[in-house]
Amino acid sequence: MENKISRFKAREQGFILVFEKMFNEESLEEIILNAEESREAVFDDYAKELAEGVYRELDTIDALISEHLKKGWSINRISKTSLSILRLAVYEMKYVESVPDSVAINEAVELAKKYTVDESKFINGVLGAISRG
Questions:
Q1: How many CA atoms lie within 13 A of 32 on its CB side?
Q2: Res 11: pLDDT
Q3: Phi and psi of 100, rounded to 5°?
């Protein structure tokens, strides 16, 4: 039986995988396997696709984020939580044709509201700048 969850929940799972990988030298495959075994987590295919895509395109994604930060800011100044959300959204905006930029941005803002301390406006601003080109 296939486990179907909402796209937001799948994005949330993808964000968690992207975030966890920042602290873990293991492959995403290992991280997923360990989570499934130890926490009985079940990851949606779309969540896995997002996380794998982010790390496959990481250099390009990070360059795009860096390019659209305000003067004086560097990617190292962004909290790991916000950076994970930005990476996920940029991946969707640039590599998932079925997801409009506005949806990727809105979902990223919702993740930021849930997981960050008031960084949703910052995330919205960076992603808006990327969307506008």
A1: 18
A2: 96
A3: -65, 150
